[in-house]
């Protein structure tokens, strides 16, 4: 197993922290990603259901697929009526031509992109939509920039993403918004990152300790019970040729 594969499967041990700390996605981004005619949607790499919840709220027929049982258990606890299937992007457990759209939130970089693209094309109906979305921290604010120095900086561009000729009309758009969370949720956010999960215990402890120190000492954060964490959500969409 490669290091990337190991990291991609590491989230099970931090599923609860992932659910507590990770942000959702802005409605404007979901509006843009989804065609108005979509009814049957696959949330691929669904995790604990951060995006799935927003799709179900829209009255869509949603199927969630993820390779990690612990993540799907969290998803199913909040969405018991939504099909949640164990599977990978390279082997999607759905029949041919079965969905109108495939959305991938915060997961495309974990996939074998050639194999995943072929599988996505298989389950999509002709003319169906593939939508990719990432939340990236907006580090223009002082404390968020300082957080990036501790845990690594987010890349808001995703301009290196390309798709095979199976998909046409690739478009990109950025959406600025703010997530509101508690100090503990910020710690959970960091604890649920793959590099933190897979780090040696002493490295993980040191990293989380530095985040706690930032919370306790930064003028914008000290003695606050609620944080405003700005994000730039990056969306990409394309159509099955």
From TrEMBL:
Gene3D superfamilies in the record: Vaccinia Virus protein VP39
Signal peptide: none
SUPFAM superfamilies: S-adenosyl-L-methionine-dependent methyltransferases
Molecular function terms, GO-annotated: S-adenosylmethionine-dependent methyltransferase activity
Keyword Secreted: no
Keywords carried by this UniProt record: Methyltransferase, Transferase
Any single biological process term in GO: methylation
Methyltransferase type domain span: 42-130
Family from the record: Belongs to the methyltransferase superfamily.
Protein name: SAM-dependent methyltransferase
Protein source organism: Mycolicibacterium arabiense
């Amino acid at each position: 197993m490669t290091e990337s594969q190991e990291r991609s499967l590491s989230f099970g041990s931090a599923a609860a922290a992932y659910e507590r700390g990770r942000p959702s996605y802005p409605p404007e981004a979901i509006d843009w990603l989804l065609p108005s005619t979509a009814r049957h949607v696959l949330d691929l790499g669904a995790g604990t259901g951060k995006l799935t919840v927003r799709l179900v709220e829209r009255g869509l027929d949603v199927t969630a697929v993820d390779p990690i049982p612990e993540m799907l258990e969290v998803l199913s606890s909040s969405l018991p009526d939504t099909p949640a299937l164990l599977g990978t992007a390279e082997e999607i457990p759905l029949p041919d031509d079965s969905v109108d759209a495939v959305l991938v939130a915060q997961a495309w970089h974990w996939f074998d992109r050639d194999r995943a693209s072929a599988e996505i094309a298989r389950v999509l109906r002709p003319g169906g939509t593939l939508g990719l979305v990432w939340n990236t921290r907006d580090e223009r604010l002082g404390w968020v920039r300082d957080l990036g120095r501790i845990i690594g900086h987010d890349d808001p561009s995703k301009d290196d993403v390309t798709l095979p000729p199976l998909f046409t009309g690739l478009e990109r758009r950025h959406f600025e918004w703010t997530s509101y969370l508690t100090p503990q949720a910020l710690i959970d956010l960091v604890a649920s990152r793959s590099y933190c999960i897979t780090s040696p215990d002493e490295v993980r402890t040191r990293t989380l300790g530095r985040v706690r120190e930032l919370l306790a000492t930064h003028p914008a954060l000290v003695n606050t019970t609620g944080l405003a964490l700005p994000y730039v959500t990056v969306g990409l969409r394309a159509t099955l040729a």
